[in-house]
């Protein structure tokens, strides 16, 4: 019985000796798990923002195309003739005034 107690004390001292080591290992594993979760969260946000940026870039290009179409001289000339009953300019009848 006494030998059993002595052997248990030796085992206990051996366990105490490596308790800090295993505690440190478990702590580092926990920190790495938390970091990994944070990294994947940030990575997901980057992917979502990249997709939104692509969508907004495409929308910007469509709007620029629509602006150029709406502000084209041919369209403005057509609206001026049809809706405002304007005629094209006859430069032979235009008199320019020089302000010198």
């Amino acid at each position: 019985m006494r030998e059993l107690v002595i052997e248990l004390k030796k085992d206990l001292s051996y366990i105490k000796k490596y308790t800090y080591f295993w505690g440190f290992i478990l702590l580092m594993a926990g920190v790495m798990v938390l970091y990994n979760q944070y990294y994947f969260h940030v990575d997901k946000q980057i992917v979502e923002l990249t997709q939104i940026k692509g969508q907004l870039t495409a929308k910007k290009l469509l709007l620029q195309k629509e602006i150029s179409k709406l502000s084209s001289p041919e369209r403005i000339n057509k609206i001026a003739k049809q809706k405002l009953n304007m005629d094209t300019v006859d430069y032979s009848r235009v008199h320019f005034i020089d302000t010198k």
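The chain has a mean pLDDT of 89. The helical segments are 2-70, 73-82.
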